[in-house]
Design a protein that fits this description.
- 75% of the residues lie in helices and 0% in strands.
- It has 110 residues and is mostly helical.
- The longest helix has 56 residues.
């Protein structure tokens, strides 16, 4: 199995996730606003469910935003690790090549 990832993959993923988080927050706010005209039109279990939704809408929004921020933090950490690993690998390769005896590999006549 081969895993190949471009050097901008995690950066793009983080940007897309941040954009999705902003969009999700806006959609939840739109849902709350759209539901306002329905207030007072329910009775019984429907009213209880609607009231529960209204009471917990801000809490749900905060929890979703918190979860998305955690995802963004994880993506950022992965990106930092990936970049650090790439730089370390390049530095190690340069150091190893610098100490390799390339003169012994020359094939010229005496």
């Amino acid at each position: 199995m081969k895993f190949d990832m471009g050097d901008t993959t995690l950066t793009q993923l983080t940007q897309q996730t941040a954009g999705s988080g902003d969009e999700l927050g806006a959609l939840i706010k739109q849902l709350i606003v759209a539901a306002e005209p329905l207030e007072g039109r329910f009775n019984g279990a429907g009213k209880a469910a609607f009231d529960n939704f209204k009471v917990h809408a801000d809490e749900i929004t905060a929890e979703l935003n918190s979860a998305l921020h955690s995802i963004l933090g994880g993506q950022s950490g992965m990106n930092k690790s990936f970049i650090t690993g790439e730089v370390t690998m390049a530095d190690d390769a340069k150091q190893t090549m610098g100490s390799a005896p390339f003169d012994a590999a020359r094939f010229r006549g005496a």
